[in-house]
Amino acid sequence: MSKILLVEDEADLSGPISDTLAREKHVVQVVANGDEALECLRLYQYDLIILDWMLPGASGLDICRKFRSNKGTTPILMLTARASLEDKEAGLDCGADDYLTKPFHLRELLARVRAILRRPAQTPGTIITIGYLTLDPLAKTVTKNDKPLHLLPKEYALLEFFMRHSNQVFSAEALVDRVWPSDSLMLPDTVRTYIKNLRKKIDVPNVPSMISTVHGMGYKFEAP
Questions:
Q1: How far is 15 from 92, CA to CA, in rounded Å?
Q2: Phi and psi based region of residue 140 (left: phi greater than 0; alpha: psi -120 to 50; beta: remaining)
Q3: pLDDT tens digit string along 39-73?
Q4: Which of 20, 31, 141, 165 is found 20 to 30 A from 214 (Cα to Cα)?
């Protein structure tokens, strides 16, 4: 599960892309204007940016250059109908990590998304085991001491995020930013409720919870 910013002004294209990514359990925020995209990148953090070249307001190249000049490191997949070698060079040289020309098949887009999100230590499809919990990102399943654990979709998304970022402290506000869509109405107090319910499901008797509260800072997930 990754948080993705999709910047595309063609509704007949952004809709299918967003739906396809959502079926892969990604959190997708869609914007259709380059200036709005720059504002989103200023305010929020993403795991991947899918960026059209030709946009109202700032162009995809402008967005890419400004984001990289501001030390932004999030991977960028550029989408465009401009397929010349010179255009590809321009897109890659301005900071894009990959370049996909229109028209394209959604399966190819997904394959490129998976490749970009891949990390040497841990790929999106790698089974994660921490303590007595095992999470399978492809099957979207969790086991606790080898027994299936039933989680609600957002409980699963929160647990996957924690397990991918173990031993790191996140405030409730940061969890809202990383796990829920940026335009959602989630409040930090609601996140605390999700964490309380998640603890009830993943904790075992007489063992400290894997989700610990760091006073004044937030929450940390670590093996017991």
A1: 25
A2: left
A3: 999 888 888 999 998 999 999 999 998 998 887 88
A4: 141
The position carrying tokens 């890419």 is: 64
Pair 44, 174: CB distance under 8 Å: no
Residue entry with tokens 């809202």: 176
Which residue is listed with tokens 């030709």?
Answer: 54
Task: Show the tokens assigned to 51.
Answer: 């960026």
Query: Under a CB-based contact definition with an 8 Å cutoff, are residues 178 and 170 in contact?
Result: yes
Phi/psi zone of residue 115: left (φ > 0), alpha (ψ -120 to 50 degrees), beta?
A: alpha
Given a contact cutoff of 8 angstroms between Cβ atoms, the answer to whether 174 and 217 are in contact is no
CB 20 within 8 A of CB 44: no
Indicate yes or no: pTM above 0.90.
no
β-bridge partners, 88: none
3-state secondary structure the chain: CCEEEEECCCHHHHHHHHHHHHHCCCEEEEECCHHHHHHHHHHCCCCEEEEECCCCCCCHHHHHHHHHHCCCCCCEEEEECCCCHHHHHHHHHCCCCEEEECCCCHHHHHHHHHHHHCCCCCCCCCCEEECCEEEECCCCEEEECCEECCCCHHHHHHHHHHHHCCCCEECHHHHHHHHCCCCCCCCHHHHHHHHHHHHHHHCCCCCCCCEEEECCCEEEECCC
